[in-house]
Design goal:
mainly alpha, 3-stranded antiparallel beta sheet, 7 strands
């Protein structure tokens, strides 16, 4: 009898952590050496992709490849643990014995078989781009294991896109995944010195990351990974801004300038926190604002953030 069978959630938790560790390292590297408005500098691109970071990138690629395997295994497992177990005589003999056999002691199917197995089990097949990335990373991982010096030339930009393509393949809401990771690791609580009320710090952190990210990605990438049309008008998120308002001026960074709310079919949706809501067309009470997009729920202008009830006090 097989015991200690993991769940889909077990696989996904480790995979999420892998991607978040890579993401943390990349954005810490970026934030240490540049501000958003300076990111187009050739010097910073040279720095991010110079040979000095080659071994770090090899480590990151290994973590991303492992994460992609874990996501595939988690989904396959959801259809039955037997689909992950390799059909060998050694496995069969142990499974059919009277002894209890831990799932982790059985030989699983090889990485090269995962996509075919996934496609056999699910109507929605693995995307072509994800399949290409999976194979590239599998080769790199093998090179790392055999020589410690893989033959690859992947930029920071490409590594970020690997992560975003994986989250797209498995329908992972990346900003929510980031928030959960930052909350559970508690690292940012200590950095900001706020153990009792961490949400504003986490929101500000994700805002900063997304602002950098949206400057890095092209229009097609933004549309593919976030359904974000950079030509459309963008708005402040009242929920995020309510969090951020609890920070001191020194902690705000660029969070108060980034507008992550998109409008689609007359519904407003925040790309950072997932808030959605309706709006009305009323003239903003601020003399400095020409907007007429007012949140029904928060009664604030989504362009300047002014509370529309202020003049009634």
């Amino acid at each position: 009898m097989i015991i200690n069978i993991p769940t889909e959630s077990d696989y996904f938790k480790i995979a999420n952590n892998n991607l978040n560790i890579v993401w943390d390292n990349i954005f810490r590297l970026i934030s240490d050496y540049t501000h958003v408005e300076e990111f187009q500098s050739k010097d910073i691109h040279y720095y991010l992709n110079c040979s000095y970071h080659r071994h770090s990138k090899a480590t990151w690629l290994g973590l991303i490849q492992t994460a992609s395997e874990l996501y595939l295994k988690g989904r396959i497992l959801s259809m039955g643990s037997q689909y992950l177990i390799d059909d060998t005589k050694w496995n069969t003999k142990r499974i059919n014995s009277d002894d209890e056999v831990s799932f982790c002691s059985l030989k699983s199917i090889n990485a090269v078989e995962l996509i075919d197995k996934y496609n056999d089990l699910f109507d929605e097949k693995v995307g072509e781009i994800f399949g290409e990335i999976f194979e590239e990373l599998r080769v790199v991982r093998n090179q790392i294991m055999h020589s410690a010096l893989p033959e690859f030339e992947f930029s920071i930009y490409e590594i970020i896109k690997f992560i975003l393509e994986i989250q797209r393949q498995f329908n992972i809401y990346w900003s929510a995944c980031r928030a959960q990771y930052l909350y559970t690791t508690r690292r940012h609580f200590i950095e900001y010195g706020n153990m009792d009320y961490p949400e504003p710090c986490l929101t500000s952190n994700i805002f900063d990351e997304f602002e950098i990210l949206f400057h890095m990605l092209g229009k097609q990438d933004l549309e593919r990974y976030f359904h974000y049309n950079s030509n459309d008008n963008r708005f402040h998120c009242p929920s995020c801004m309510d969090d951020i308002s609890n920070l001191s001026y020194g902690e705000l960074s660029g969070a108060h300038t980034f507008k992550p709310v998109k409008m689609e079919d007359n519904i407003l949706t925040c790309l950072v926190c997932g808030w959605d809501g309706s709006y009305n067309l009323s003239t903003c009470v601020s003399e400095k604002c020409d907007s007429n997009i007012i949140s029904d729920e928060w009664n604030v202008c989504l362009c300047c953030g002014e509370w529309q009830g202020a003049d009634e006090q």
